[in-house]
Design the sequence.
């Protein structure tokens, strides 16, 4: 198999430890591992994997993923930094680009819109996949179009989806419902703004404020659960609602779960929506703790928490 990839100019490694490529620092090895940094490399990697009938997984920044202890029995395609192209108020970017760095690039170039997400970790593709957001805004709000390839039908060329076709909603997109659709490139449409220097200061201040609230001393995948969208049926929790949502952390904290530990995984004392790897946590430890939190919150409040973390390699 490795020779097949060499023929098309891609260098594949074997048995690469995936814990080294995720913010959780958890996970077994990838049977095969390749890095790509542009559209051509990504398409070649996907097409070759499909041709050889090898399962594959696209890994971005590794900030919202939990890899199984057994690893991934196939090809992991690791997205690296690619080009950013400015054309008027439209900005094209490769899906593997670092999201916070890209946001800062747009601000430095004199555009506004994406600064809400300047301190959200991950890649551009990951931000689009999960419609990453903060302060009532989401990455999808500023998308002009997304180029994808359907890995289930490689006879079809890559195609373009407009913003409406992407089905963006709170932490949702059509890509979560169509796992064979691989995000290649994204075009954002932003507005010119001459206040870039002040916005960069605001981004830095927001980062410092955000850091102060988050448990960054240990490895994690960020927030473990989505916040709960408020509706009339949750009237008893009205005082907990913020901007139309109830923080998942509030339910977890009120359920008395701060500091709950299973193996090397623990619910943070600082921010209850963070599950931390405090040493040698296994993926199984994390899964058990997630399930325990969900059941406890459901039993106490009749509220079903929905996971944000994507699981990979589990049977």
Sequence:
């Amino acid at each position: 198999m490795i020779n097949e990839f060499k023929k098309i100019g891609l260098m594949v490694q074997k048995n690469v430890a995936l814990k080294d490529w995720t913010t959780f620092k958890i996970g077994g090895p990838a049977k095969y591992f390749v890095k790509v940094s542009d559209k051509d490399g990504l398409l070649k990697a996907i097409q070759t994997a499909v041709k050889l009938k090898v399962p594959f997984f696209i890994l971005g920044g590794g900030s919202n993923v939990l890899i199984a202890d057994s690893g991934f029995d196939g090809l992991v395609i690791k997205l690296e930094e690619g080009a950013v192209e400015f054309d008027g108020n439209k900005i094209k970017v490769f899906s593997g680009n670092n999201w916070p760095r890209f946001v800062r690039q747009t601000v430095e170039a004199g555009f506004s819109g994406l600064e809400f997400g300047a301190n959200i970790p991950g890649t551009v593709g990951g931000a689009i996949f999960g419609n990453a957001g903060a302060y009532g805004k989401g990455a999808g709000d500023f998308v002009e179009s997304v180029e994808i390839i359907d890995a289930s039908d490689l006879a079809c060329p890559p195609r373009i989806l407009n913003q409406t076709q992407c089905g963006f909603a709170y932490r949702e997109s059509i890509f979560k419902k169509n796992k064979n659709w691989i995000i290649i490139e994204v075009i954002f449409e932003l507005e010119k703004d001459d206040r870039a220097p002040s916005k960069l200061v605001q981004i830095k201040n927001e980062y410092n404020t955000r850091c102060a609230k988050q448990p960054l001393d240990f490895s994690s995948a960020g927030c473990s659960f989505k916040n709960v969208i408020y509706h009339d049926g949750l009237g008893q929790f009205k005082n907990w609602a913020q901007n139309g949502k109830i923080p998942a952390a509030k339910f977890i904290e009120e359920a008395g779960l701060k500091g709950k530990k299973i193996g090397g995984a623990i619910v943070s004392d600082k921010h209850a929506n963070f599950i931390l790897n405090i040493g040698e946590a296994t993926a199984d430890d994390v899964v058990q703790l997630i399930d325990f939190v969900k059941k406890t919150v459901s039993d106490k409040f009749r509220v079903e928490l929905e996971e944000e973390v994507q699981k990979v390699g589990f049977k």
